[in-house]
């Protein structure tokens, strides 16, 4: 239990990075800065020199992560994702139905040949709506993590590198935002801003950057004591050049690893917002909203609520496998 | 005494953050496009009413004064009126908090009950098929939306099999246990998955330590070694993980309470949002935040009681 040998103060809101369940830790993707959440690899022991992080794909699918062959988890996740993107892009063209095409003679039909996912209470084909919804959730998932990743990494790097009041300011902000449960804060922000896709971006962006900040700051704190930084200063490099050109690229891998599972979290959060009626505006076929709409028909039309959920789960699995694969790859290269 | 000074330090670290949290949440209402008083009172409110609300909240005064009024109200227990129920918030708060607390604690307990056996099985059969199965099982809850799993459980166990009620809080402790089983199970799935994973890892780590080798060399059988020497240190991180995960459990309860129609804080928040009862939304956000911080603090304070190494730090 070496990972747990930390003083209790590490667990405070200051030192700890509470990650969302569906995110990094949920798949074993943790950075070295959060020792309590990381696990030691049980394969080659602690002597490898890297912070061994065990992942589902790494241990289950791969006999030895050091062997340089195509990582099965990465391949599987990549393929799943490719299929999903393909479905999202091509599905609408292939489907004979429109996503909002009411057909009152086909209300609440069970899944069958004509409608593989059944129809909802307006006679709309559920499969088509799920495919259109894939585009929505994928788009939001990928776009909504970009700002937190970029902003959080830069801010965290600056905080770690320059220290002083910059560090204090940033970490205070991080502490305050972290103090409020993630979903509660996002819901509150969307509540006041109003529903709609843009506001989802604002809410998630405004709250989600803090984890990246913590991650990158931790890495930068570690990096800036390494010799190449001192050498660079001795050579006369300006501090910000060192930061952007040399330290930041080395500090970023844990943030990249977290990115993959953050996408999962954002998709789930978007679905939750949609479920509560706070998300994308109707009649857009967002998965969460579809599940919410389907709640009225659980006894006579269970497919309306359950099919979009399977799509969600599929997407989540794809990104988790992808993220595990990336994590394993980055680990093998000695990061 | 190191323990007291540690406690003092932790509390001292938490208070400023708590204060800043009130500022953050106070500022939330400024996100409202347009006039907050008009937004709250609705389209049909008279100008008189809007002006009165302006005066009451000091909306015509500078921002810091408004914050002062807000804090004064908070501290004196004037949490406002719920527009929907037409009762003071302070009257509705206890019962709602009780429901949510029951749900969250119940789900934590269920998580532990699920995770510990799974982790033991996985750790003791490391590398073989039970381990692979458990690790595969873990990923599924993490990829799925909690409310969807709740709906699946609802369909299967409440509607089809009729083992559990589909909604409501129930009467009496046994009633609560029965009514809240499915919601708590739903809420627990993410934490159970993470806990299983971490426990499994911790158990494996402990198994390779020298003192366990010594216990085996002494001739103790596997079961004794497992329960008396391996399990106890491996279970320690549960305390910390509970503190970390609680934040997400609280967030998740908002959605789960809606799925199962539970009269808790989370569903109240959603109702208030949809009813544009913004003051209540603000107050509830604050309640969630302060509650989460309090539990984190308590977890931090409890942990040294279990792990003496921490007290010296």
Characteristics:
heterodimer; A: 335 residues; mainly alpha; 11 helices; disordered N terminus; B: 313 residues; two-stranded antiparallel sheet; 15 helices; 1% strand
Oligomer: heterodimer
Distance between the termini of chain A: 23 Å
Q: Helix share of residues of chain B?
A: over 70%
- The overall strand count of chain B is 2
Distance between the first and last residues' Cα of chain B: 12 Å
Which two chains have the most extensive interface, and how many residues on each? A-B, 77 and 89 residues
Report on this model:
The complex is a heterodimer of chains A (335) and B (313). Chain A has 335 residues and is mostly helical. Chain A contains eleven helices and no strands. In chain A, helix 3 packs parallel to helix 6 (197-223). The relative contact order of chain A is 0.16. Chain B has a two-stranded antiparallel sheet with strand order 1-2. Chain B has 15 helices and two strands. The mean pLDDT of chain B is 80. Helices cover 79% and strands 1% of the residues of chain B. Chain B is globular, with a radius of gyration of 24 Å. By secondary structure, chain B is mostly helical. The chains are: A mainly alpha (335), B mainly alpha (313). At the A-B interface, helix 1, helix 4, helix 5, helix 9 and helix 10 of A face helix 1, helix 6, helix 7, helix 9 and helix 12 of B.
Topology diagram in text:
The complex is a heterodimer of chains A (335) and B (313).
Chain A: H1 56-61, H2 72-94, H3 126-162, H4 164-179, H5 182-193, H6 197-223, H7 227-234, H8 239-251, H9 253-276, H10 287-294, H11 302-332
Helix pairs in contact in A: 2-3, 2-11, 3-4, 3-6, 3-8, 3-9, 3-11, 4-6, 5-6, 6-8, 6-9, 9-10, 9-11, 10-11
Chain B: H1 2-28, H2 36-41, H3 47-57, H4 63-75, E1 81-82, E2 87-88, H5 89-124, H6 129-143, H7 146-160, H8 172-179, H9 181-207, H10 210-218, H11 222-235, H12 237-259, H13 265-274, H14 278-306, H15 308-311
Antiparallel strand pairs in B: 1-2
Helix pairs in contact in B: 1-14, 5-6, 5-9, 5-12, 6-9, 7-9, 7-12, 9-11, 9-12, 10-11, 12-13, 12-14, 13-14
């Amino acid at each position: 239990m070496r990972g747990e040998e930390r003083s209790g103060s590490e667990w405070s809101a200051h030192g700890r990075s509470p990650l969302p369940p569906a995110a990094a830790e949920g798949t074993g993707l943790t950075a070295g800065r959060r020792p309590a959440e990381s696990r030691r690899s049980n394969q080659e022991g602690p002597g490898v020199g890297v912070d061994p992080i065990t992942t589902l794909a790494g241990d289950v699918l791969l006999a030895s992560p050091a062997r340089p062959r195509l990582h099965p988890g990465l391949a599987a996740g990549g393929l799943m994702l490719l299929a999903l993107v393909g479905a999202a892009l091509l599905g609408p063209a292939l489907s004979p139905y429109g996503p909002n095409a009411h057909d009152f003679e086909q209300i609440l039909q069970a899944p069958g040949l004509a409608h593989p996912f059944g129809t909802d209470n307006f006679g709309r084909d559920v499969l088509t709506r799920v495919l259109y919804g894939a585009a929505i959730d994928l788009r939001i998932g990928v776009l909504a993590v970009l700002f937190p990743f970029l902003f959080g990494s830069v801010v965290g790097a600056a905080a770690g590198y320059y220290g002083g009041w910059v560090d204090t300011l940033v970490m205070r902000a991080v502490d305050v935002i972290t103090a409020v449960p993630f979903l509660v804060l996002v819901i509150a922000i969307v509540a006041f801003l109003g529903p709609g896709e843009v506001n989802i971006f604002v809410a998630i962006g405004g709250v989600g950057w803090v984890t990246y900040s913590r991650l990158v700051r931790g890495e930068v704190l570690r990096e800036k004591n390494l010799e190449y930084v001192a050498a660079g200063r001795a050579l006369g490099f300006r501090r910000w050049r060192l930061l952007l050109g040399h330290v930041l690229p080395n500090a970023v891998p844990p943030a990249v690893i977290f990115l993959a599972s953050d996408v999962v979290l954002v998709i789930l959060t978007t679905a939750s917002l949609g479920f509560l009626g706070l998300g994308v505006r109707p009649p857009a076929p967002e998965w969460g909203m579809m599940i919410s709409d389907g709640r009225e028909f659980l006894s006579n039309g269970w497919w309306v609520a359950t099919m979009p959920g399977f799509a969600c789960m599929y997407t989540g699995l794809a990104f988790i496998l992808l993220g595990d694969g990336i994590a394993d790859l980055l680990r093998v290269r000695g990061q | 005494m190191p323990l007291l000074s540690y406690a003092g330090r932790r509390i001292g670290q938490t208070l400023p953050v708590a204060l800043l949290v009130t500022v953050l949440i106070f500022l939330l209402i400024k996100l409202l496009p347009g006039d907050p008083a008009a937004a709250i009172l609705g389209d049909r409110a008279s100008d008189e009413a809007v002006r009165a609300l302006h005066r009451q909240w000091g909306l015509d005064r500078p921002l810091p004064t408004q914050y002062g009024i807000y804090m004064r109200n908070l501290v004196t227990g004037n949490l406002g009126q719920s527009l929907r129920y037409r009762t003071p918030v302070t009257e509705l708060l206890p019962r709602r908090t009780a429901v949510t607390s029951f749900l969250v604690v119940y789900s934590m307990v269920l998580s532990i009950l699920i995770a510990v056996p799974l982790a033991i099985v996985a750790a003791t059969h490391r590398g073989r098929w039970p381990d692979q199965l458990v690790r595969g099982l873990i990923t599924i809850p993490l990829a799925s939306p909690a409310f969807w799993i709740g709906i699946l459980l609802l369909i299967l166990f409440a509607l089809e099999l009729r083992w559990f009620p589909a909604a409501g809080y129930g009467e009496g402790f046994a009633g609560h246990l029965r009514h809240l089983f499915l919601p708590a199970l739903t809420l627990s799935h993410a934490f159970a998955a993470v806990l299983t994973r971490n426990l499994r890892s911790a158990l494996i780590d402990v198994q390779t330590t020298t003192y366990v080798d010594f216990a085996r060399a002494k001739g103790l059988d596997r079961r004794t070694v497992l329960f008396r020497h391996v399990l106890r240190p491996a279970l320690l991180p549960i305390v910390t993980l509970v503190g970390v995960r609680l934040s997400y459990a609280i967030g998740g309860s908002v959605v789960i309470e809606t799925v199962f129609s539970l009269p808790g804080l989370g569903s109240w928040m959603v109702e208030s949002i949809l009813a544009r009862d913004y003051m209540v939304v603000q107050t509830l956000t604050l309640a969630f935040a302060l509650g989460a911080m309090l539990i984190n603090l308590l977890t931090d304070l409890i942990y040294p009681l279990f792990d003496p190494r921490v007290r010296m730090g």
